[in-house]
């Protein structure tokens, strides 16, 4: 049936042409934008995913900039600490030269002062965009990542870089909890008296018997002649000991067979042993007297004269822990920094004592090889003085180059103290350089990773929303042909009503 009111063929042709035009418009949009999903109406789920990923890429771009800034800041700090290490090494060379007494120590001290001022200049100038990593103690956080959980929540991650304080400040003593229990003084006073060993020689001797004494590794002996006894042996052995000229060691006899061996060696025990070459009835006895009573031995050592503070092997050292050594009327402070140990505390207190310039006080730091315990030893060559340790938490840490300003090689005592102390300062600057180097390396690795991650995310986004240009091109050609055919079909369908006119002619 034909109708002039309803042209079904034209309607079908029109709908087909509309569909073709719609597909053609979509294909042209893909070609012009390069995207298969350009808006939420194209594919809501894929569009939403791509937008989340695009926001992450934008965020990682900002993180990369943050990492680059942080890397530059840490690089400046590393270069500064490396320069400080080189300058401290030069100072060490000057200090070594000052160990000789026939050099012009005043000129050497002038050179040291110039190098010290240069170190201060380097430390003060080592800033990037106003941030100085070699002054102060607060950690610096560098934004390193954005972490998206499966539920969509986002958290930030940081690389924490610890500052390495290369200042020379003494710090501020704390007023918190007592730390006195973390160190034990060997005595309540440190004195200049010699420690002694008394060798008592008995009277039962025969001609040809030999009395033997070993002092500080040196073997001595006396062969008794006819009619000789303890008196002659004691006088002879005391004379032999004195003739050795051993530093800090002297001997005397009382004329009745008692030989007193005295040692003023501050940081060294002196071994003493006795024996008889021929058989006897226990003619030689050694009695060691070290200020704490007497002990009868067949052999023994004379203990070092210095007193010591033995630090705990189990107590932790926290930032701001403050320790004070008191010798007589003088007190010497050191305030620990973050990550330090009891070794650092002992060495810091040594520097504090040496920096005071008291020629009567000499110091040493040692570690027990069996227990690992660190000790600060103090020897007093002056008037006997009270000796104690105290401490409190909650202080402000001393600078990593604490003691540098007080290095003085113009005296024998100052030159001796400076040699050990400059080693501590060099170790501190080397540790600081190593810490900054590790941090810079980590930041570089993270920055490289962030760059690769951003590239991967961009590639993933492209996979989701980018158009396949080869397929789009082929489809465009096909749709253009379909459009032409659809137009022709609609034209033909529109001619159908014309055929009805022929029925009325």
Spans of at least 5 consecutive residues with low confidence: 290-299
Number of helices: 8
State the distance separating the first and last CA atoms.
Answer: 19 Å
Mean pLDDT rating: 87
CATH topology (level 3) name of the largest domain: f41 fragment of flagellin, N-terminal domain
What would you say the CATH architecture of the largest domain is? Up-down Bundle
What is the chain-wise order of helices and strands? HHHEEEEEEEEEHEEEEEEEEEHEEEHHH
Number of domains: 4
What best-fitting shape do the alpha-carbon axes yield?
rod-shaped
Sheet with most strands: strand arrangement: 10-11-7-13-14
- Could you say which structural class the secondary elements and strand pairing correspond to? alpha+beta
Q: What is the CA-atom radius of gyration, in angstroms?
A: 44 Å
The CATH class designation of the largest domain is Mainly Alpha
* Binned strand content: 15-25%
Largest sheet: 5 strands, antiparallel
Description:
This protein is an alpha+beta fold and 505 residues long. It has four domains: 8-34 and 467-504; 63-162 and 428-458, Up-down Bundle (f41 fragment of flagellin, N-terminal domain), CATH 1.20.1330.10; 180-190 and 308-397, 2-Layer Sandwich (Alpha-Beta Plaits), CATH 3.30.70; 195-302, Immunoglobulin-like. It contains eight helices and 21 strands. It has helices at 8-33, 44-97, 105-125, 230-243, 342-355, 412-465, 469-494, 498-501; strands at residues 127-128, 131-132, 140-148, 154-161, 183-185, 189-190, 195-201, 210-215, 218-223, 249-253, 258-263, 270-276, 284-289, 294-297, 299-302, 307-311, 322-327, 330-335, 361-367, 374-380, 385-392. Strands 10-11-7-13-14 form a five-stranded antiparallel sheet, with helices on one face. The chain starts with 7 loop residues before the first helix and ends with a helix.
């Amino acid at each position: 049936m034909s109708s002039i009111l309803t042209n079904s063929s034209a309607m079908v042709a029109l709908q087909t042409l509309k569909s073709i035009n719609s597909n053609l418009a979509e294909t042209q949009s893909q070609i012009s934008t390069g995207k298969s999903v350009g808006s939420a109406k194209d594919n809501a789920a894929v569009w939403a995913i791509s937008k989340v990923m695009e926001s992450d890429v934008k965020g990682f771009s900002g993180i990369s900039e943050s990492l680059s800034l942080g890397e530059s800041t840490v690089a400046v700090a590393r270069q500064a600490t490396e320069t400080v290490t080189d300058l401290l090494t030069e100072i060490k060379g000057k200090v070594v030269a000052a160990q000789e007494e026939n050099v012009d120590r005043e000129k050497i001290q002038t050179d040291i002062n110039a190098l010290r001022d240069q170190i201060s200049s380097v430390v003060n100038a080592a800033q990037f965009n106003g941030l100085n990593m070699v002054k102060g103690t607060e950690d610096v956080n560098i934004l390193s990542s954005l972490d998206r959980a499966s539920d969509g929540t986002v958290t930030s991650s940081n690389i924490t870089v610890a500052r390495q304080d290369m200042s020379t400040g003494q710090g501020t003593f704390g007023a918190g909890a007592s730390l006195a229990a973390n160190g034990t003084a060997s005595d309540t006073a440190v004195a200049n008296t010699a420690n002694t060993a008394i060798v008592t020689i008995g009277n039962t001797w025969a001609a040809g018997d030999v009395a033997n004494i070993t002092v500080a590794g040196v073997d001595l002996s006396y062969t008794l002649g006819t009619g000789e006894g303890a008196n002659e042996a004691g006088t002879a052995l005391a004379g032999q000991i004195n003739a050795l000229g051993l530093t800090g060691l002297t001997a005397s006899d009382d004329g009745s067979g008692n030989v007193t061996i005295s040692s003023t060696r501050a940081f060294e025990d002196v071994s003493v042993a006795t024996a008889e070459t021929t058989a006897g009835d226990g003619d030689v006895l050694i009695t060691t007297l070290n200020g704490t009573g007497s002990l009868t031995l067949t052999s023994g050592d004379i203990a070092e004269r210095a007193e010591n503070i033995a630090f705990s092997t189990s107590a932790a050292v926290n930032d701001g822990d403050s320790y004070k050594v008191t010798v007589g009327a003088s007190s010497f402070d050191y305030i620990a920094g973050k990550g330090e140990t009891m070794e650092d505390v002992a060495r810091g207190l040594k520097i504090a004592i040496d920096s005071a310039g008291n020629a009567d006080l000499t110091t040493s730091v040692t570690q027990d090889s069996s227990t690992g315990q660190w000790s600060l030893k103090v020897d007093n060559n002056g008037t006997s003085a009270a000796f104690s340790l105290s401490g409190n938490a909650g202080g402000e840490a001393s600078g990593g180059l604490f003691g540098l300003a007080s290095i003085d090689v113009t005296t024998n005592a100052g030159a001796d103290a400076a040699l050990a102390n400059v080693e501590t300062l060099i170790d501190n600057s080397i540790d600081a350089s190593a810490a900054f180097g590790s941090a810079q390396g980590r930041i570089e690795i993270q920055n490289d990773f962030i760059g690769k991650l951003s590239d991967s995310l961009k590639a993933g986004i492209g996979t989701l929303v980018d158009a396949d240009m080869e397929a789009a091109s082929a489809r465009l050609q096909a749709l253009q042909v379909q459009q032409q055919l659809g137009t022709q079909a609609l034209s033909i369908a529109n001619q159908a009503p014309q055929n009805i006119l022929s029925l009325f002619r």
